[in-house]
Amino acid sequence: MAIRIGRLEDSSLIARRLAPCRIVVVASPAYLARQGEPRTPGELTRHDCIRYMYGEGGEVWHFVGPDGPGSVRVSGQLRTNNGDAMRVAAVKGRAIAALPSFIVSEELSSGALVPILRDYGVAEMAVHAVYPGGRNPSAKLRSFIDFLVPRFGENPSWDAWMDTAGGTDATVAAP
Q: What is the mean pLDDT of residues 2-10?
């Protein structure tokens, strides 16, 4: 069994959803004080954005907002394939980032990062338990997955910051 995060492509694997994986557009208060806060996705073109370069995309962020779906090509000095590196750079005020809430939960709770573009969002990704198909899973595997489901759930602990921040719709789609 493996834990996979993202949008699962068709495969021979069996998947069971464990939790949502919300992507939050964030910036540090220092960055926002210095550069201003974008109010629409189009304003991101005038900002330094950290581009996540794992797989395809990273330079085009897709949003759904009050006027429907849209996308924006972002740019910036930093490109990486590591969410922790993105988090550190965002906390240090280097740029705006779009990150899974489980990576930035503590920073959102503490105020080191703040969610922006809260009126724009898309369908979230998810955390799944996956295992080979084609045969019945063992009782141990079924029990383990059944154990995980309520411990993650639709409101995982890493999204507790949303209760104090008034929730968020600030998510961005992968391409």
A: 82
Distance CA 121, CA 172 (A): 6
| Mean pLDDT score of the chain | 86
Mean pLDDT of 73-85: 93
CA angle 147, 152, 156 (to 5 degrees): 160
How many Cα atoms occupy the beta-carbon half-sphere of 153 within 13 Å? 8
> Which is nearest to 170 in space by CA: 97, 77, 78, 74?
97
Q: Which residues contact 158 (CB under 8 A, 6 or more apart)?
A: 101, 102, 105
Q: Which amino acid is at 109?
A: S
Q: Which two tokens stand for residue 146?
A: 């059944």
Joined together, the tokens standing for residue 102 give 């489980």
Query: Residue 125 and residue 83: Cα distance in Å, rounded?
Result: 15
pLDDT in tens, 129-170: 999 887 788 899 999 999 999 888 888 778 777 765 544 444
